[in-house]
Fold M23 family peptidase.
Amino acid sequence: MRIITFLSFYLIIFTGFAQQDSLIEVNIEDSVLTTEFEEKKGRLIVPAKSYISLDVCCVEQYNQKLKENSFSTRNPKEEILKVTCKENTQAISVADGKVALVLKTEGAYTVVIKHGKYGAVYSNLESVSVKEGEDVNEKQDIGVVKTKNLNTVLNYELYFKGNKMKVANWIKID
């Protein structure tokens, strides 16, 4: 795992591009992945192999520290999906894509998977089973959800070209 600068993290999450990507040129693979991802709107799988409950909440409820750190520019009403799981549950990719980032902060991993111009953020992982640059398939294991204080919760966010999407509009809840 490499050390990532704030600029790299910002470019991947908030603009949808890594430093090595051209902001002008859009490759064919990204176009195909974007189209395939858009066709799944409202039908994306829950990003965990099994779950106890799902909760869509605003970022402000999820992380009160937003006002204190560099992510304070986010709209506090933006949504995040909290997936409560059993211990040792695998987080899984919601669609085909490419791992853009694996980052460890504050004792937990975050994985960003690009689905064309969409970016899915999976955070609060104990361990990861993917590497940056790796192609992933729908339902592929990406890591084990971390348990802290008897709570096992995966946090999932979705972006399009750096803009936060309403997760509830994308995930199919059975």
Observations:
- The chain is about 15% helix and 35% strand.
